[in-house]
Give the backbone structure.
Amino acid sequence: MNTGAIASRYASAFFEIVSESSDIENIYTSAKKLSNILLKWPVLRRVLSDRQTDLHDKINLLLRFVPSGVPDQIIQLLELLIRKNRSEQIIPVLLMFRKKYLSSRNILDVEIEFAHMPEDNILNELKRKIETTLKSSCEFEIVENPELIAGYILLVNGRIFDTSIKGQLRTVKRQLLDVKFENR
């Protein structure tokens, strides 16, 4: 079975169960924090995906990384995925749950990657302009990436708008390579 379909089924079921909860915002915030933690720890992901590691050891290890105050529903989801040998689905399930939550609230998922962090007043003005242009509430993830040299990359619900110097150099390189191969 397609792993995306598996994660989607778990995320949909989890969303349906918790969507009526009065604690849905806390569940969402905790799922977001936990997915960010797991994305930053590839060694943890490898251990969780290792079929040789005992299920109880996986659960205990994962619970050490879970921030305090995480709702029981998240803990139960994690334990279920591990017991069903679906550890590799934890991040996709959490990310798909996040997407379902935002969609249900008509909130766009926006990531802005800057070469250098702008001042707060500039950042706030940019956020305001993005929400006005998109005519929607947005949840912003702000990332600093000096490799961009200058400029920024805007990612809105999976669509990329790249104004960075690195992106422009990549475009020029691609055009030069196209010309080179056309002249052969």
Remarks:
- Strands lie at 107-114, 137-144, 152-156, 159-162.
- Residues 3-103 form a domain with the Peroxidase; domain 1 fold (CATH 1.10.520.20).
- Residues 165-182 form the longest helix (18 residues).
